[in-house]
Structures are given as C-alpha cells and as structure tokens.
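Table S2 (text version). Query chain:
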Amino acid sequence: MAELDSTQPVPERGVAVRDLTLAYGDTVVQQDLSFHVQPASIFVIMGVSGCGKSTLLRHMIDLEQAEQGDVVFDGHRLWTDDSAERAALQRRIGVLFQSTALWSSMSVGENVGLPLQLHTRLSAAEIRDQVAFKLALVGLAGQESRMPSELSGGMQKRAGLARAIALDPDYLFLDEPSAGLDPITSQRLDSLIMNLRDALQLSVIAVTHELPSIFTIADDSIYLDNESRRAIAHGDPRTLAEHAEHARVRAFLNRQPIVADDGPS
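Corresponding structure-token output:
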C-alpha cells in the first residue's frame, strides 16, 4: 500500500513523502500528504484536472519547495542545506515533461547527449555510444540525426524518455506521458515504461488521469481530491475501482459522474 503513517520511521529505500503541504500564498493545493514509493515500482499520482497532481510532481523533483513536509529519497532529504548533497540527489532523478521539452534547434542525438555533456566527463565518443544505447532502449535506434519536428508525437515522447534516462537515474518522473497520443501509441508507451522499469530497476512516479494507462502500469497509486485538498485513497487502482472508501474515487476509476458531494461510503 502507498499510505505512509507519518509517525513511523522514514523507509530507508524508495521515495517517502512525509506530511507534505503544497500552497501558493494562502491558497492550499494539497495538504498532509504522506506516502511511500517502493523501489523498482510504478507509482501513479491520479485525480481530476486541477487537483494538484503536476504541482506535487514539481515539488518532488525540486522545482518548487513545499510549505511544509519532506520528500526523502533512499533516506536522503531532498531539501537539505547541503548544496552538494542536493545536487547529487537531483542527478539521480530523470523527468519526462508533458511537452517532452526537447530543444527544437537540436537533433535527437544532441538532445539526449546534452545531460551527459553538462554533468559528466565522458569523451565525445563515449557520449555518442551512450546516446545510441539510450535511443535503442526506447526503440529509436539510428535516429540521432533527426530533428524533433520530424518525429511523430509518440517518437517525441520516446526521445524525451531517452534523455530522461541519459544519466542512469534511479527515479523517473513522468508528467502526463500519454497526453496527446492516440490509444495505440499510448499503449506502446505504457509497455515501454514497464520495460524500462524492469530493465533498469527504476522507481517510476507518473502523473496521469488516463484510465487505461493507470490500470496497465500502476503497481500502486494515490488519489488527490480537489475538494478536501487531501489524498483520500491509496493502493492498487484496480482494487480501488471496486472497493475505495470514497465514492468520488470509485466514480473516477469507473468513468462515472458524481451527482452529489460525498464522504466515505
């Protein structure tokens, strides 16, 4: 189960979110979030649009700092005062943004190689070898010279994934990975994500509201509620679809409307 009792010791392995409150000024986005992502698992952050899923992801990858609480990776606090330790932890995180964020003026190979140029001392030849290897892992072997504009939406996502794993991260964050893709391409991307988790033993944290992807890839999940501003469900989404305590969660996972405000039922 994903839920983490905030009174318990922080797990030494995996990602632990502890008593996290996300706010912009007086506006609370989510509060009192505590959960644990097991090593080499796929954890889905789900909920309706506007509930704070991507905001939580931005905090977990250190683009923003929380109002209160902690994010802990394998026993190491993200928001430490030690800048060297914080930078080392950031290098263990790979991110695929919703827009892929590929540089349009750079080739696919240059995009994937950029993190290696910035953060390693590898030679140009070694970088080329690593780029070729990472592109092969995502099914884009031999595509180094192509420009992002020449790729389909699915290929752009895979190129973004190759760049996200360029530095061999331990944790891979995905922000709406299936957004804008047709169902077949989305299914192939789901399979690729699971294959990468297995091959590289990645801990994957994915933000999505795409139900087919949720039911396909998730080992565990958390549901962020946009009314209470809290997590109101934790666990395997296949189980939650039938047995979640809150009707809102069951309705979301079964594509059913909520006709009235509800509590546990």
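Notes on Table S2: Residues 211 and 255 are 8 Å apart (CA to CA). The mean pLDDT is 92.
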